[in-house]
Amino acid sequence: MTGIESRLTAGYPTLIEDYQEAVATAQAAAAAYYTGSDSPLTDAEYDTLLDAISSAEMALIPPGDIIEHGLFDAVAAGVVVAGDVPHPTPMLSLEKVKTDEDIEKFLARLVAEGETEVLVQPKLDGLALRAVYRDGKLVQVVTRGDGRAGEDITDRITRAQVTVAGLPEYVESRYGVPSHSDFEVRGELLMSTDDFLTTNANRIASGKPGFANPRNATAGSARVETLNYEVEMSFVTYDHTITNPDDTDAFDFADELTGAAVVDARDPAAVLAAIEAFGAMRADYEFPTDGIVLKAATAAVRDELGTGSRAPKWAVAYKYEAQTGETVIRNIVVEVGRTGNLSFTAVYDPVSVDGSVISRASLHNTSLIAEKDIRIGSKAVVYKAGDIIPQVLSVTNDETTSPWVPPTEDADGYPYVQRGKFLTSTNPADSVGALIRYAASRDVLDIDGLGSEIADALVNEGLVGALDDLFRLDATTLTALPLGETSTGGIRRLGQKNAQKLVDGIEAAKRQPLNRIITALGIRLTGRTFGRRLAAHFGSFDALLAASRDDLLAVEGVGPERADVIHAGVQRNRDVIESLIALGVTSEVERDENAGAAVLAGMSVVVTGSTKGTKLEAYGRNEMNELIERHGGKASGSVSKNTSLLVAGDGAGSKLAKATDLGIETITPDEFAERLGL
Description:
This protein is of the alpha+beta class.
């Protein structure tokens, strides 16, 4: 915390400014909670801040300076509701009780109305929804919003990638007969432990960073416009208007599913014991929960007590103390995701938190690491966000620690580059996204228009999982490819014109020479140079697939280690290579029947200086090397006694001087073009 609450209650000279800052912070936290974003405060910090605001307003803040913030009487203070679907009756929140005395006062209120039993059940931490059925078919799903109106998310809940247990699209009775009833159900959309682990694994595999906790995962998955991974969620019903008893079989009701205990409302000690009993086992509970709900068991008592503007008067919520642990961070592990984005995990001394031992926490990105100043050796306070996922809450550092510096390249020497919030690998062997970006580059397949954004979208949408998938794409599919949001919040798509241009570029890439196709596979320790050497030596994909480790040793520049790596890479890509052949991609070296094809046979050729304004101007470095090797020569980057020919353009410099000293034949770019018959 920033200490705002302590300044408020102490009545500092900057009281009004502190108060305004406190309200703004609390509203931001409330908005983050209800939208599923990362909150700037923990639940405990939020509650402490609300208490400070309330105390200040009652005793310190002049009436004219009190802000109409809605923090104590609105369901979602600070939230701008995206939808405008009104609820027939308000969807309310729950008042909180914090002490044993508060609980006893609530029980006394129930008993005074004649209640003898109270339900004690876990407080589920998800996204409140109202679902409407017509003739037994799910026709509308609306978020709670501000309690009076919410956002229609029907299309996002019912899309193919989303499975919601307990919220069927069609309701059938226990006899398999379709329902013809009209009704609505209200409840909590959430993720069980299994739902969250499965969904987060799917999300990370798609190249996106994992969700911080189940509630964020639920809200994020339910609200995102485009979804390229499978999501599993659950819906727990706590209220409904179902009149046909058979229709209730399709839903999971909170009182039954959560294991609600029925306790004597006249026995506060028994109620407190039930609360304590659940607290002792909640670390192993299957749904995200941060507390207990106490509510009157009798409908008549509920009706008699009624509701306030924000909450029912017959139910309250009790939240458990957030549990944290202190430890020392020993390492930050870097891993590459499917699209090439790097993820970071803090590894720390094992510590017991909320009933289980944890030793790792996701750090999401380098910005978070820098903002919290997380270092190797930091003393850290860790907790389980949403009571499931370990997080680093805060750290302290001394003179023995120094800021952690993100890596700049991988073990193969490929640089990491910053793309938005993410650090991304450029190594094609690391991920599908990096491979597609590499394969599409000018010196490889030269697919115009296939940049990072489109490459990531193809991977995220599940359209490309390997190089061969690229050559199966069609214009119709690509036209609808989502590329993020427009400035007005709509979905920006690739469009027909760009899609056709991309398809034409991919079709042209099929005819690239074999050496470029080999290079595009992204096999470790190959690259453009060894792509050319492998193509020249074996002449076809069939021969390369049949090559043994010893056969690879015969390729110029291939030693034992490189032979092992290339052989393993080729065999790992066998299915992809065979698929490329079937798709009509170049699979053999083009044989040049012209007599001039061998004009450079046995020669080592170096090209240096500028070729601008000559017949070689259109050739880049890789294309120049291909040209030399296609005519029987060996392309080299340095002049030595083994050099046969130097092609010297303007500004040739030291290479020209060395060639002159060694007596090496030197010609101009135009003379070289003439020699090759260009």
